[in-house]
Structure formats: C-alpha cells, structure tokens
Amino acid sequence: MSLEYMELARTAAARIANVTGVEKHDIALTLGSGWGGAADLIGEVVAEVPAEEIPGFSKAAVEGHGGKLTSIRLTSGKHALVLGARTHYYESKDVRAVAHGVRTAAEAGAEICILTNGCGSTRANVGPGSAVLISDHINLTATSPLEGANFVDLTDLYSQRLRRIAHSVDPHLGEGVYVQFPGPHYETPAEVQMAARLGGDLVGMSTALEAIAVREVGMELLGISLVTNLAAGVAAESLNHTDVLEAGKAAGPRISQLLADIIDQIVKDL
Known about the structure:
There is one protein chain. This protein is an alpha/beta fold. Helices cover 32% and strands 24% of the residues. The chain has six helices and nine strands. It starts with a helix and ends with a helix.
C-alpha cells in the first residue's frame, strides 16, 4: 500500500470516529446484493453518514447498492462498521478506490472483515437463493490492489476458523471458489465454462480485489455469496440486472438472519 493511500485510509478512519463518536470498530461488513437487511438485525444504529462525506469514498454507482457508512453497536457491546458504498472495479476508478473501504475499516480498528456479494453460479445444482461460503477465489481482473514488491501470502485468505463458525450456525452451508471478472458486462457462456473448468463455482464482479487488501492489512476474512442467478449458459434464459435484484430481494430476509446469527457467534471471540 502506498504511503499516500495509507494516509487517506487513516484520514477516513479518523473522520468516521469523529462523526460516529465510536473510537474503535471491531468488525467490518460489506453487504452486497441481497444482504443489506442484516444491518437491521445485528444491533443498534449509532450513526449513519453519506459515503461521500468521508475522504476517499463516493456515492454508490449501482442500483441496489447502498450509499452510506453505518456504525452499529452490537448486542455484545462491540461495534460494527457497515461499508454500504462499495466501489467496483468496473466503475473505472483506480483499484486503490476498490480497496479503500477495507483499508479504512482496518484503520478504524476492525479485526474481522465480512465480504458478501450477489453472484452467478456455474453449477446447475446450486441455484438462486443459495448462500455459499467462499473458500478461495480466482482473480481474473488482471490487476491487484497491492503495489510494488509487496508479496502477500494468500494461502489461507478465507479464514477456515470463521467458516467453521458459519457452519456451526448452519451446517448445510455449501462452500465454493469465487471467480472475479472485471465486468460490467455479464460473462459469456464460454467464459463461464472456462471458470468452471478452472475450479470456479461462483462468478461475479467484486470481492477478490477487496479480499487481497483485507489480507494485506491483517484482518481475518469471511466471504459469503448469495447466488442470484445461474450463470450464462448454465441457465436457459438471458441475464438482466432486474432479475438479479429481484432474486436478492426474495432471499433477503432469510440470508440476512443467517448473517446476523453468524456475526453473533463471531463477536463472542472478540
């Protein structure tokens, strides 16, 4: 991480602390398509702030994504920072902007980061509405948030400990490898076949770049995907964003409660 962007993350974290009155946030949450309802279930909202009022953040560019940073006091007394202003790589901003949220969360004191998303499935037997723990990823964006001779080990990037906790909440949760494409177009059927042959179970346009930055700053990571659609060529019908949003909305209450229960178990160890 460049000194410039370390300083920007520190400045953003200081601003969050000032606005929310919370000196330390213990856990960070990025809530993707379908997952937003979890924020209403995990505790009491301390403060909400429009993302653009925090240095380095901007308004959400995608329908269905939030545009606020929210501080929540959990029932345990710990605090969660909900990053409701995810920057996607396809927005044509610097990859540093993609990583800024998780870097800021680390500077705000977070020890654990939970990244969620809505995605397509390369497996016909894992259909819309399925929640899947991310066990690993394949980064097909041809870039990285790391800079210079910064050799970060990603062997156990997606925490086995946190996945065990998630399985203790729901033993039926599946696991899969997430493949990040650059977007914003959906993948072609041939690209989906390629991803599957490479070992990918889930395809989407977020998460992997953020996950690399999470490891760089030393947070422990849990990744969870909501399958909103079968990927191109797996499903007979064509894809559109409206259907993705509708699938996320339909699954929202169930997966939000699942995530809230997982968070409740995770914070017991903090």
